[in-house]
Amino acid sequence: MPIHETIQARKVLEHIQPYLPGKPIWEVQEELGLDQVIKVASNENPLGPSPKALEAILVSLTGINRYPDANATDLKRQIAVRSNLSPEQIIVTNGADELITLISETFLNLNDEIIVPSPSFSEYDFGAYLMGAKVVGVPFGEDYQYNVEAILSAVTQRTKIVYLCSPNNPTGTYLSKKHLHKLLDSLPKHVLVVFDGAYSHYATADDYTVGIEYVKLGYPIIVLQTFSKIYGLAGVRIGFGLASEAIVQNILKVKEPFNVNTLAQVAATAAINDDKHVEASQEANTLGRLQLYEGFSKLGLSYTESMSNFVLVRVGPKAKDVYEELLSKGIIVRYGDTWGLEEYIRISVGNPKENDTLLKAMASVLQETC
Ligand SMILES: Cc1ncc(COP(=O)(O)O)c(C=O)c1O
Questions:
Q1: Which has the least CB within 10 A, 45, 112, 276, 358?
Q2: Is 184 in the pocket of ligand 1 (CB under 6 A)?
Q3: Does position 370 have pLDDT exceeding 80, yes or no?
Q4: What is the dihedral of CA 206, 211, 215, 221, to 10 degrees?
């Protein structure tokens, strides 16, 4: 027997599969020998990064012989001003992904439970499995709307975290302010609410909230934000959390000292103040969503109305074939099997030309396949 097979990984890892991201553009180009590839699979910003962030990165390049600021002081100050919280209520991490892992490491004991309205972002489950905790999935209601009563009924003595992803990935549906308030008031005091607002900037509903007001009111909630979506900085990996000082202090105990590199910190500090880029990205997304809705309706496809920068589309029993056919034409979308949604694909909002190309390709693929 080769020596490496005698080395046993931790038992809890039996539940974990390595994360499967959306296929990168270069891989599809290489595999299919295509020049033009459209990626609408990972909910990235089709407008590109904030130009101010790019400038900031260029200016900082010569300083990368130094370690980054372990405390992300400048960025925390900016976030504090923008959110009207204190820097001590902020933690900056290597993407929101890292923060989910850190929260899991900080709060989950063996056999604790997390509640995840499902289907949702897979990293919540990953964090729980890593710690030997259990995942209690609570299905969304009709049209993937949040079911507050069902979430509350799933709570036990062992429940440590309730995840609320709003707008939710992959459904695009959201939790109204009224329902968030109700949940926070009804949950027992040993439960931490992790409110994942990765897509908050795209939400246009009047009754949407990203939950920061509840941090201010002292509820046991941590709000997650990322620079990967609206700010267009997915490639440099940076996100942050907002919570009470006590919650943040505990999470800091498990954070690596230099988890966020210098270029990411300066880019994020510039991007958070680039209102022009944020507003342009919001407007483009709202229009792009409408373009997709109209196109899907013309194709006779049903979709879930989205408060985010992606749309979940019901394609039917041939969804996997449609996904593969689109891929062969150089269009990368996300197939829904990751979430147990075998008849669906999730499509990120691209720029107008990308949306148009996608819709035309879908029309011909649907004709050939279905
Ligand atoms: C709901 C949700 N939360 C968090 C993340 C992770 O963001 P980051 O790129 O900051 O790790 C994603 C990324 O797709 C997401 O969809």
A1: 276
A2: no
A3: no
A4: 150
Nearest Cα residue to 223 out of 196, 201, 246, 198: 196
What separation in Å is there between the alpha carbon of 272 and the centre of ligand 1?
17
- Measure 252 CA to ligand 1 centroid, in angstroms: 20
Ligand 1, from 121, 126, 171, 233: best to mutate by most atoms within 8 Å of Cβ? 121
Distance CA 211, CA 221 (A): 8
Q: Decide: 169 in ligand 1 pocket, CB within 6 A.
A: yes
Cβ 118 vs Cβ 140: under 8 Å: yes
According to the model, what pLDDT value does residue 5 have? 77
pLDDT tens profile 181-237:
999 999 999 999 999 999 999 999 999 999 999 999 999 999 999 999 999 999 999
Enumerate residues 6+ apart whose C-beta is below 8 A from 27: none
The pLDDT tens digits of the residues spanning 263-289 come to: 999 999 999 999 999 999 999 999 999
For residues 220 and 250, the answer to whether their CB atoms sit within 8 Å is no
For ligand 1, whether the C-beta of 97 sits within 6 Å is: yes
The answer to whether the peptide bond before residue 188 is cis (omega within 30 degrees of 0) is no
Interval 143-155: pLDDT, tens: 999 999 999 999 9
Amino acid making up residue 101? T
Set out the domains of the chain in order of their start, with CATH numbers: 3-48+276-369 (3.90.1150.10), 51-274 (3.40.640.10)
Atom 2 of ligand 1, nearest CA residue:
198
pLDDT at 1: 61
Find residue 113's DSSP bridge partners: 134, 159
Alpha-carbon distance of 197 to 191, in angstroms, equals 19
